[in-house]
Every structure is written in structure tokens, then in C-alpha cells.
Design goal:
Elements (H helix, E strand, L loop, with lengths): L22 H16 L14 H11 L11 E6 L2 H22 L2 H7 L10 H4 L2 E8 L1 E3 L5 E3 L3 H18 L3 E2 L8 H7 L5 E10 L15 H4 L4
Antiparallel strand pairs: 1-2, 2-6, 3-4, 5-6
Helix pairs in contact: 2-6, 3-7
Length: 228
């Protein structure tokens, strides 16, 4: 049965009474989470070793709890394991990336990317054992062709992707957010409906034994937090 968004229905509140966590436990959990998340890195060199599929499914389920505009949940997550499909995605992505790196990006953007060591070759799309392709639903499309507008789609899907990355990392897996531009080929390869637009391709797996990452420094807390 297709999910149908609520629309124009009266507000029906339900009780929400979560147990309050003791302050000491809250502080300990926050410190542990901060330390674990500080170890998250974007990985471009993946091992082909398979990962537990249920871990990925649970991570997607976590992402799907994200807040969304008018609770319309405007996202679709496609788990791509088929090697042939991943090869098709890689070929199409590298074709677009080649054009981008040959001049479409512009020198300023290329200069910003240089410290990351990226280029048009994208082995992570076929080396990683799985891809999660995230689509945003620009509007709801009913089985009979009826449409209903979605609100704050970019913001909602962006939050969900952030929660997905966190869930994957905390479950012991590595990931990369890949956004080839344009991404229309993903709709064609994966046969998505007209109301969906590709948002990101996320390779998921374990880092390769010889994996390397850029030597980068994150901004400190006092550089990103303003207290008033």
C-alpha cells in the first residue's frame, strides 16, 4: 500500500513523555559521541569485502527518522548491490566528472578541491560493496497520477543524509558523499519516477587496508559555535 501524506487534517496530539536522562549520564554520552564522531572521515578507498546488510538497512531506518517539512518525508534511499548496475553508475558519473574537471567546474572550484586529491576517476563507485543513492521527492505522486507539493525538500533530505552518515559511522562503516553534476543519469539507470531527483550517491563499506585520507583540520568548537 502506498503511503499517503496527511493534508488538511485536524491536529491530533499524542503524549510524549520520554524519561529524563540523569545529567551525569547525559554528559558521558555526549562526550563519547563527540569523540566517536571526531573520528569520522570521508573515505575514497574501499575494501570490496561485504558488509552486514542489516547494518545498512538500520542506518537507513535511522536516517528516515529525520525531521521534514510538514512531515512529508520527501526521500527515497536506493540500496545498490548489483555490480553491473554499479559499473553503469560509475561509467556515467566519470563521464560527467571528466567534463567538470576539464573546465566546467571553473578554476576557483578546482583550486578548492585540490587539497582533497580528487579527480574524475571514481573507483569507490565499484570498489565499495554497496551504494546508497538518495533521491529527493520534489512532490508526492499518487498511484493515479495525483500530485501534492512537498515543502523544504532540500533541507529535509540534507538532514536525513547527515543522520545516515552518522549512523553508518557509529555502526563501524565508512562512507563518502558523492555528487556528480548533473545527476540525471541516476534516474535513468535506477528507473526512478518523474517526481524524484537524485541528491547524492553514498558508497558504503570498510576502508581498504591501504586507505589514505587528506591531512585536514576541522574547525574548533569556538570557531563554529556562537553563544549569546
Amino acid at each position: 500500500m502506498q503511503w499517503t501524506p496527511t493534508h488538511g487534517e485536524p491536529y491530533r496530539p499524542v503524549p510524549y513523555r520520554p524519561a529524563r536522562m540523569p545529567a551525569a549520564e547525559s554528559l558521558a554520552r555526549a562526550a563519547e559521541l563527540r569523540e566517536r564522531m571526531d573520528g569520522r572521515r570521508t573515505v575514497r578507498q574501499f575494501s570490496p569485502d561485504p558488509v552486514p546488510e542489516q547494518v545498512v538497512r538500520d542506518a537507513v531506518a535511522c536516517a528516515a527518522t529525520a525531521p521534514s517539512g510538514a512531515h512529508q518525508q520527501p526521500w527515497t534511499f536506493i540500496l545498490v548491490k548489483d555490480p553491473a548496475v554499479r559499473r553503469r553508475i560509475r561509467r556515467a558519473a566519470e563521464e560527467e566528472e571528466r567534463i567538470s574537471y576539464d573546465g566546467r567546474l571553473g578554476e576557483e572550484w578546482l583550486a578548492a578541491l585540490r587539497p582533497l586529491g580528487t579527480d574524475e576517476v571514481k573507483p569507490h563507485l565499484t570498489d565499495a560493496p554497496a551504494l546508497i543513492v538518495v533521491f529527493q521527492q520534489r512532490y508526492w505522486l499518487g498511484e493515479g497520477g495525483e500530485r501534492r507539493k512537498h515543502y523544504y525538500v532540500d533541507e529535509s533530505v540534507g538532514i536525513a543524509v547527515g543522520m545516515l552518515l552518522s549512523a553508518l559511522h557509529l555502526s563501524g562503516l565508512a562512507a563518502l558523499v558523492h555528487t556528480p553534476s548533473p545527476m540525471r543519469f541516476l534516474s535513468e539507470v535506477l528507473g526512478r519516477p518523474v517526481n524524484e531527483k537524485a541528491f547524492a550517491v553514498i558508497p558504503v563499506g570498510y576502508p581498504a587496508p591501504d586507505c589514505e585520507v587528506p591531512d585536514l583540520v576541522r574547525k574548533s568548537l569556538d570557531q563554529v559555535l556562537v553563544e549569546i
